[in-house]
Please model this.
Amino acid sequence: MFNLNDEKEFSTGKSIFNGGEAGKVDNVSIRVEKKQDSSNQPDYKLFANDGMGEINEGFYYPTPNPQKNEEENNKTAKMHVGRVLHVAKAVMGDDYTFPEVNGAKEAFDTLFKLIKENSEGKKFNVYATYGTKDRPGQYLGFRFFNFIEPAGNEKTTLYPNAKDVMEKLNPDAPKGNSDNWI
Model:
């Protein structure tokens, strides 16, 4: 008899970040990769590895939306730069003085360079979810804000919030007779 619901019985041997569980994950290492070609891949990827598996998230340079005015585009760019700054502060510490930059692209390049050059050998705590109630996801990923801190923080800032999806989504069963799939 085969139990098709037993993941251990049919394991592919692939490790899963935090065992597939959402929540705070302690003592992970992080790394950054920058896009090397002109593909549609994200300009940067941030990876977190807990020793068993890895998650990553792509970051694209903020670009103006022609349907929004300059003020709205600046607000959106600052939000995305603020997200990367959050990671850089976890790496560099709260007392680090960041250089001035001329725009979102330069901010991304500067911050990701600092993260890449200063994160090796350091450990961090991250908060992983299956998205939010407004945007649930099938895979574990970083929360949009407040998702990383240095490991060993005396007082953690990584707690669940009401919008976090903490359980993996199960796809709906196919409609109709499952015996007639051809």
